[in-house]
Amino acid sequence: MTQRLYGKHSEKSSKSSEAQASEAKPKKPRGQAQGSKGHGRTTRPHLPKIEEVRDLHPDERTCPQCNEPFDLFPGTEDSEIVEISVKAYVRKIKRMRYKKHCKCPGVPGLITASTAPRLIPKSSFGVSIWVEALIGKFLRCEPTNRFCADLKSLGAPIAMGTLTGGFKMLAPLLEPVTSAFLDKHLAEKRFGGDETTWKVFEEIKDKVGYRWYLWMTHSASVVYYWMAPGRGANVIKNHMAGLNLETIIIFVCDRYNAYQCWAKDSPMIL
Prior knowledge:
Blueprint: H1 2-6, H2 17-24, E1 97-99, E2 110-112, H3 127-138, H4 144-153, H5 160-186, E3 190-199, E4 211-218, E5 223-228, H6 233-239, E6 250-252, H7 257-263
Parallel strand pairs: 3-6
Antiparallel strand pairs: 1-2, 3-4, 4-5
């Protein structure tokens, strides 16, 4: 306190040793080194090519001074521009029908070709719509509302309730994939794990509030997420129940007691 009140003060600030050291070394410019060879433009040989011919206007095919017509030079000067064309369209399915002339029993009088395959029966949306919806949801973490807005800009609006109902119908189709991920996951030997709060606005019996937890375990080849209403040790125990404990399992986590309760039951878990 004495120093603060009566000690010597100076408005001059002395630079720290680290700042002086950084000023002594010249800063290396960011980016590619000047004069080094670049990698050139990225080639895309797998993309289909649509030729577009650009020609001179008829008034430009003659000499502007004497009006003598130019001769067409063999060959063209070519360049490439990468474009993306996204367009919604409607598939109109026309099923051919045949009428029988015979009187054989058990054969209908009118035979119609089979219906077009649909991912969801009687749905007016094709497979490509649901593929884009699933990729947007699980690969790009895109909100459903944003996906609906994108489709609306393409001229194909879809109600959010329709997408939500479709996701519920598609969920059972993904269960075999999820099960295969978990089998591969539990066959590995080193994991990282964590959990965080996750609000789920759905009332369930004997649970107060909407606080759920999003759990994650990470192995060499699989990152596995699942949600649970609680945060107890039984959640991680049930999830890791299929581990092969004949060899040592390494689990990297924080000091949360749930992981310690699970690990103390087996000496092979570190």
